[in-house]
Amino acid sequence: MPSTEPDRRPSALVWFAALASLGLPIVGVGAGLYGVFAIYRGIAGGWLWLTAGLVFLVADLVIDKKWSRWSVSSEPDLNRRGDQLVGQIVAVVEPIERGGRGSVRAADSVWPAEGAEAARGARVRITGCKGTVLTVEPV
After folding, report:
1. Is 44 exposed, middle or buried (0-12, 13-18, 19+ CB in 10 A)?
2. Whether the Cβ atoms of residue 93 and residue 110 lie closer than 8 Å to each other
3. Domain residues of the chain, as ranges?
4. Contact (Cβ atoms closer than 8 angstroms) between residue 129 and residue 115
5. 111-138: b or e for each residue (b if 16 or more CB lie within 10 Å)?
6. Of the residues 20, 43, 124, 129, which has the maximum number of CB atoms within 10 A of its CB?
7. Which of 64, 124, 74 has the alpha carbon at shortest distance from 114?
C-alpha cells in the first residue's frame, strides 16, 4: 500500500553530514594519536594535532546527535515489545489479586501484569506498559 505521507527524505546536506560522520572518527583518532606521539617525541605542533583530533571527534558526536533527530522512525515501537501489545485481549495465567500482580499470556510469552482483579483464564485488555509489567483491565 503506497504511503500517503509527503516525501520527507533528508536533503543532500544531511546525507553529506552522515557520510562525513563515517570518516570523522577515523581521522580524529588518527590525528589525536599522532598528536600524543608528537608531544611525547617533542615534535612541534603536537598539541595542535591532539586538539584537531578532539575537534573531529566532538564534531562527529554533534553530527550523530543531529542525525538521530533528523531521521524519524516509521515504527517508533519497534523495540518496545510491551507497547506493541497495548489494546490486545489476552488470557490471565496467574490470578491478579487486588493491589497485586499476576501474569498474562501475550503472544508467545507470559508477562507480569497488574490492574483490576482477574481470575485464572479470564480475558483482559492490555491498557499500558510500565517497563516489563503490563497494565490490564477486564473486558
Report:
1. exposed
2. yes
3. 12-70, 81-138
4. no
5. bebbbeebeeebebebeebeeeebbbee
6. 124
7. 124
| Torsion over CA: 7, 65, 79, 104 (sign) | negative
Q: Kindly write down the DSSP assignment for every residue of 49-69, as one continuous string.
A: HHHHHHHHHHHHHHHHHHHHH
Give the integer Cα–Cα distance in Å for 102 and 9: 45
Q: What are the pLDDT tens digits along the chain (139 aa)?
A: 444 555 666 678 877 888 888 999 999 999 999 999 999 999 999 999 999 999 999 999 998 888 777 777 777 777 788 888 999 999 999 999 887 899 999 988 999 999 989 999 999 999 999 988 999 999 8
Distance between CA 18 and CA 25 in Å, rounded? Answer: 12
Cell of 74: 516509521
Residue 44 half-sphere exposure toward CB, CA atoms < 13 A: 0
In this structure, the chain runs to a length of 139
CATH number of the structural domain 81-138: 2.40.50.140
**Sole residue written with cell 489479586:** 97
